[in-house]
Specification:
3 domains; Rossmann fold; 19 helices; Ubiquitin-like (UB roll); 5-stranded mixed β-sheet; single chain
């Protein structure tokens, strides 16, 4: 790679000739404010907050899109630069709601932070305010165009990362907005509710729908038995939401905090993930032995399921019929658990803590009522759980770790890796391999299916056969595998698809971060949890064994089929 010599604020540097001025500054430890820029999205230079001086240039330039060249002299902190940046931010603030104290992104807003860093204490301009209705008619995401700064991040995340193309710019000048086609609500268009738009929005123009008030109300009802399940990816991200280092494993502290909030029982979604492997593994074996539809595709990610129903309805019979771990847990909570505790399903309030915004929409699906009542009543994201802990005044750092409640808090390492892309596949292979061969695996680590590459594939020898598998994360990469199936060119037996980058660790309900390596830190923490687990195979979970022996019968049996399986239908949103 060719290197060039540049000078940034008097500091001599050698950087690749393909770098932008912003990237060179970051390499030099020089902070340049940005709003439209995101390290994982194509730079566009929309906002102009990142302007710098280049010796010999006729005007200030946007550093996020301006390439370096040999001998370039860059100044990032001149009077002209500071004045220009302040003017840009003041103009944005002039047309922005002044409701920071009550805003959902207060103290976690990039516009707010940059205004503070630039020393803006008053806005010199008195601009006309936008007046757009709130788009909150879907279960997962709220859009407030009055807080939009037209950075275009959501457009790029939805198109580049997911390939869904829900958003675009419309109108011109002051009337410019970022909207779905024909200014429709997200519930009227082909939105998968993955929440990746919310995860990159620098303000509160797109946020997770806040259901914490509803859960507080349920916790205050003495006649209700309010229980909670926590997803695997939450334990490696909640600490980050509460000010700890990214990738901190806070499982025990999280359980302790949730108990302090007033939940009657604290359970682990990982228990249901182990059940999922029993059902999904049995289903795969059934298809392999008896000529069922292949490749079979996992159905754990509701954003992916929405995408399939919206865009690939002709391939729905490839999806596993097993419900997601969230919904399997919910179904068992209001049947199996209710029976064990002598409770009525109507008196149980089932809450889940998820990294995923699409889980809110999944819980609201009409068919998810195995007991006659909703399997899962409320879904909170990692962000919302963090907000409840702060609201309750709980000092998270000083909490002593506590254990999940039995029996639905007993889980394996195979279940915890559901939180990372490739994890469902690896967990399934650990169980399917032993069920087919009847022999214990010499090594349970399937490294070929791990990592953050967009599409991974492997050929796994199992007994006398070879199972061909593939893993995709983000819907853009999912398209590649789905088109192969549609064209009859797929040779895989089993495919795992996760809607979000990195899988659940990168879900739309996780703490908002623009750090490029944040998902890698969470991923490594997930596998550390697996390594430390006493049992690492789903079929060896003693609580799951007890569930089948005493109550369910067998995987894919009549009772499990009734409670734990479903079918997916084409969605007619256009």
């Amino acid at each position: 790679m060719k290197m060039v010599n540049i000078l940034i604020d008097g500091q001599k540097l050698q950087v690749p000739n393909t770098a932008t001025v912003l990237e060179a500054a970051q390499h030099a430890g020089v902070k340049i404010p940005t709003l439209c820029y995101h390290p994982e999205l194509r730079p566009e230079g929309n906002c102009r907050v990142c302007m710098v001086e280049i010796a010999g240039a006729r005007s200030l330039v946007a550093s996020c899109v301006y390439p370096v060249s040999e001998g370039m002299v860059i100044r990032t902190n001149t009077e002209a630069v500071r004045a220009a940046r302040k003017t840009v931010v003041e103009l944005l603030l002039a047309n922005h709601p002044q409701d920071c104290l009550s805003c959902q992104r207060n103290l976690n807003c990039e516009l707010q932070s940059i205004a503070a860093d630039l020393g803006i204490r008053q806005v010199r301009f008195d601009g006309e305010k936008k007046s757009h209705p709130l788009d909150n008619h879907n279960p997962s995401i709220v859009r407030d165009q009055n807080k939009c700064i037209l950075c275009g991040r959501c457009i790029r995340a939805c198109s580049e990362r997911q390939g869904v193309h829900v958003y675009s710019f419309a109108n011109r000048g002051f009337d410019t907005v970022v909207v779905p086609a024909f200014n429709q609500g997200l519930h009227e268009v082909a939105c998968t509710y993955c929440g990746q738009c919310a995860s990159v929005c620098p303000t509160a123009a797109i946020v997770v729908k806040d259901d914490t008030a509803k859960v507080w109300r349920e916790l205050a009802k003495p006649e209700k038995h309010v229980i909670v399940q926590t997803a695997p990816a939450v334990r490696v991200a909640l600490g980050e939401e509460l000010g700890m280092e990214p990738g901190s494993i806070v499982t025990g502290k999280m359980v302790a905090a949730i108990r302090k909030l007033g939940f009657k029982r604290v359970f682990d979604t990982n228990f249901a993930a182990d059940v999922t492997i029993m059902e999904e593994g049995a289903e795969l074996l059934e298809r392999l032995k008896h000529g069922g539809k292949l490749p079979m595709i996992t159905s754990c990610s509701p954003g992916w399921v929405n995408f399939a129903e919206l865009v690939y309805p002709d391939l729905l019979d490839h999806l596993s019929t097993a419900k997601s771990p969230q919904q399997i847990f919910g179904a068992l909570a209001k049947t199996y658990y209710a029976e064990k505790m002598g409770l009525e399903a109507k008196d149980i309030v089932s809450v889940s803590i998820m990294p995923c915004t699409a889980k809110k929409a999944e819980a609201a699906r009409e068919e998810m009522k195995a007991s006659g009542f909703r399997d899962v009543d409320y879904v909170l994201t990692t962000q919302e759980l963090g907000a409840m802990i702060r609201e309750a005044g709980i000092d998270f750092n000083t909490l002593q770790p506590e254990e999940y409640d039995a029996p639905m808090g007993i889980a394996t390492g195979a279940a915890v890796i559901f939180g990372a892309t490739g994890g469902v596949m690896e967990a399934a292979l650990r169980t399917v391999s032993e069920l087919i061969t009847g022999q214990e695996l010499a090594c349970v680590d399937f490294h070929a299916v791990r990592g953050l590459k967009g599409i991974k594939e492997a050929e796994v020898p199992i007994g006398d056969s070879t199972v061909k598998v593939a893993i995709a994360h983000t819907l853009q990469h999912a398209r590649t595998l789905l088109e192969q199936i549609r064209q009859g060119k797929s040779e895989y037996h089993f495919i795992e698809i996760m809607a979000c980058p990195g899988g659940c660790i990168g879900g739309g309900g996780q703490p908002v971060s623009s750090c490029a390596d944040i998902r890698e830190k969470r991923r490594l923490a997930i596998y550390e949890c697996d390594q430390c687990a006493g049992v690492r195979k789903s079929h060896l979970n003693p609580a799951v064994i007890e569930l089948y022996e005493s109550w369910l019968g067998k995987a894919l049996g009549e009772k499990s089929h009734q409670l734990l399986h479903t079918h997916y239908q084409p969605q007619d949103r256009c």
